[in-house]
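Justification of resources, computational component.

The compute hours requested in this renewal are based largely on the per-chain cost of generating structure records like the one below. Each record pairs the submitted sequence with a full structure-token output. That output is archived, and it is also reused by downstream analysis tasks.
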Amino acid sequence: MSKTRESSHQIHLNWLMRLAITMLTTYYDLTPAHLREAHDRMTGSLALARQIADRYKGDHTAWTQIRDNVVGALAQMGRITAVEPDFTLVETYFVEARELCRSYLVSLTHEQRVQLATWDRFENAHLVEESHEEGRDPALVIVLNPVYAPETPAKKRVQDKANERFAERYGELAVINAIFAA
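The structure output for this chain reads:
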């Protein structure tokens, strides 16, 4: 396994573990029965998210339901990896969740993605430029995809670039924003 892929897996594994810890409100004995329950909940959440995404492709109003189901599935993946810290056990479901969100978000217009990113408190989403290169996802697809941890370098780069563009275009307002943000 390449070093980049290995570090990417570690970032995602850490993200899944944190999600599991924050989403669990009660203590679970992680017995084989609980692992089956976690697996069933994970696959059920992904199936529901897939149904919603297929039905509302191109309609951004369903994003909250899709995102919440995917986050629920990620939490169950975290429960599973807490017992069996081998990422390969949940890797196919992780990839499925990532691709489900990606395909739904790509089906939206740039304006719809900007609106969703703004609702998710992404600063200056309107200044994120879309990539039109073959094989590259639009930047806001990466930002909005809940499969990627908030501290993923790609998300930080997109936010930094949007803030840089804001400072270039609205210089004096950037100073005022920095004062209020502090």
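The mean pLDDT is 80. The longest helix spans residues 32-55.
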